[in-house]
Design brief:
By secondary structure, the protein is α+β, with helices and mostly antiparallel strands. It is built from two helices and four strands; from the N terminus they run E-E-H-E-E-H. The longest helix is centred in the middle third of the chain and has 19 residues. The radius of gyration is 19 Å and the shape is extended.
Amino acid sequence: MAAEPYSTRPARYSYELSRSGRELAGALRLLADWGARHRSDAEPLRHSVCGTPLEAAWYCATCDVVEREADAGEELHFA
C-alpha cells in the first residue's frame, strides 16, 4: 500500500495499491477461483462478456502457447 496525504489538519490519507500490491491481486484472484471450485455454494469467476467460467493457464509469450499440464505429457518445469 502507498499512503498519500491529502489533508494535514486533521491528517488524512488516500491509500492506493503499490505496483507489487497490484501484482499480488492476480494471485489472490487465483486463490479465490481455487476456493470457488472446491465449494458447492460458490460461483466460479466468469467472463464478463459471455458468462463462461474463466480458466487460469500458463502462457509462453515466446512460443505463443498455452501450456496445460494434461496436454504437455510431462510436468511443467520452473527455473
